Amino acid sequence: MDTTEKLKSRIAELEIELANEKSKNAAPVRQKIAQMSSEVVDSNPYSRLMALKRMGIVDNYEKIRELTVAVVGVGGVGSVTAEMLTRCGIGKLVLFDYDKVELANMNRLFFQPHQAGLSKVDAAAKTLQAINPDVEIETHNYNITTVDNFQHFMDTISKSSLKKGAVDLVLSCVDNFEARMAINTACNELNQKWFESGVSENAVSGHIQFIVPGESACFGCAPPLVVAANIDEKTLKRDGVCAASLPTTMGIVAGFLVQNTLKYLLNFGDTSFYLGYNAMLDFFPTMTLRPNPNCDDRYCRQRQQEYQAKPKDITVAKEEIDDTPLHEDNEWGISLIDETVPDIEDTSATVSSGVRQAYTLPARPADPEPEIVSTETSGPSLEELMAQMKSI
Amino acid sequence: MRQMRLFSSRDSGLVSELRLVIMVDESTRKTLSSIPLLSTKAGPRDKELWVNRLKEEYQALIKYVQNNKGSDNDWFRLESNKEGTRWFGKCWYMHNLLKYEFDVEFDIPVTYPTTAPEIALPELDGKTAKMYRGGKICLTDHFKPLWARNVPKFGIAHAMALGLGPWLAVEIPDLIEKGVISYKDRGDE
């Protein structure tokens, strides 16, 4: 009898323990919300965003629910970018990456150690969906630069919006030149607006660049731009490492990227065509880059012609000249210095103060088109050459 | 091994053409000048033109391997799938009279030849910091400007001579010294 009682009380203990454990795992799940509300209550995840309307910053914030953004590269910058857009209530995200989460990524934001080994897109989708179930998330786990995947990438960009059309914006958050050029090629062909973003390999500078095919310089119009790091090159030791990274720089660049994405998509403020960041000096150069008429990419040249043929909507800026000083007295002599450099066309190495091209290229002929192609009809066939190579 | 020091001491500066020539040592320069230059600017999405480019690639590679054999410096073999989009083969490095051999592979990116192929040695992935994911070798700051200036004249053979060759010369002795790779690993050779 005694043992039965003991067992009964033990069962009761275990049941309580089990209930406790269960409650730990059963995290409260936020239900989907059909309509963005501006009601200010603790339970409304959109109240502070909708407040942007009341404050006159954004005319129609709810529009974000209809928009689709593709994020290519879900690493240090891309994952944070995706999280910001998710929290902002973007309609749909399309994520591309072929990498896995590694413990070596833990100096960056977003991913957590228990996700190591998972594909970045799957791990990200799960977290993002939990943060905001209203966002539709589509994932693609492949390398966009290979021939097999590139066509699928182009098709996805042009058909994956909520309305089954082209996405509203592509954000490049990749970490290599090849992938950036692949995105550039696709977006020039598809006439797709996109943002390029990047953080330098020494982790102390970064940039974003808005590319409107035909209107602003494409990524292939000139050698990549580099924000001067102001580091004595002799003291920059690169022995034994490929790249350094900081969560700070990546977070800042992701912030710049999403801020300009929101400004463009929701039509408020001015969208920067180029915004650089030099962490050593806290210097932020901005500028506009015009396309190169001799760009190597023929679709870029085609878009330029289309853009030039298009009648420009002449929006004469209503200049409200307000002569009255903002502050009557200026006891401390505080003044603002304009650091922006307008419209840069020069392709010399130094593009703007603090920004230069990564390298210079030899001058190309004005019209690079007619290239004499040696059809090689005489020589050995490709099959013969392949066989010859094999037999060496 | 002057090449080793030159390629490992990396500065991320704007490098003038002149300095690049100096950066590449005499033997590399000689090697480079004996590899035929290519002329067709076409990538794997360019159907017929790509076939022309592929022929040029194979002709340059055959010449380069023959040159290497002729100068007793044979160090790699490569072949491709029939579309010429995926390449694979072997490379080897002699150290203290022992031969260390590795599998090589890379895809031809859609943006080739504007962007160079990213050569990978998958079996060394995770063994050295001078690699990106998947065993893609980490090239010096000199490689990309040099490549960009020579589009479309440089091909796969040039990428091997300027990219993988110097990388092996710097990294393999270092990895052997650190005990990360040992001769026994490839005892079948």
Automatic annotation (TrEMBL), chain A:
Instruction: Please verify whether the record's keywords include Zinc-finger.
Output: no
Q: Which domain of life is it from?
A: Eukaryota
Tell me the function of this protein.
E1-like enzyme which activates UFM1.
Q: What is this protein called?
A: Ubiquitin-like modifier-activating enzyme 5
Write out the GO MF terms: ATP binding; metal ion binding; UFM1 activating enzyme activity
Family annotation (PROSITE patterns): D_2_HYDROXYACID_DH_1
One GO BP annotation is: protein ufmylation
Domain THIF-type NAD/FAD binding fold, first and last residues per copy: 46-296
Q: Which family does it belong to?
A: Belongs to the ubiquitin-activating E1 family. UBA5 subfamily.
> InterPro entries, alphabetically?
D-isomer_DH_CS1, ThiF/MoeB/HesA, ThiF_NAD_FAD-bd, Ubiquitin-activating_enz
Keyword terms: ATP-binding, Metal-binding, Nucleotide-binding, Ubl conjugation pathway, Zinc
This entry carries the following GO cellular component terms, namely: cytosol
Write down a Pfam family by its short name: ThiF
Automatic annotation (TrEMBL), chain B:
Gene Ontology biological-process entries: protein K69-linked ufmylation
Q: Name one GO molecular function term.
A: UFM1 conjugating enzyme activity
Q: Which Pfam families match?
A: UFC1
Q: Which UniProt keywords apply?
A: Ubl conjugation pathway
> Catalytic residues?
C138
Which InterPro entries does the record cross-reference, listed alphabetically? UBQ-conjugating_enzyme/RWD (IPR016135), Ufc1 (IPR014806)
Its GO CC terms are: cytoplasm
Q: So what family is this one in?
A: Belongs to the ubiquitin-conjugating enzyme family. UFC1 subfamily.
Protein's name in the database:
Ubiquitin-fold modifier-conjugating enzyme 1
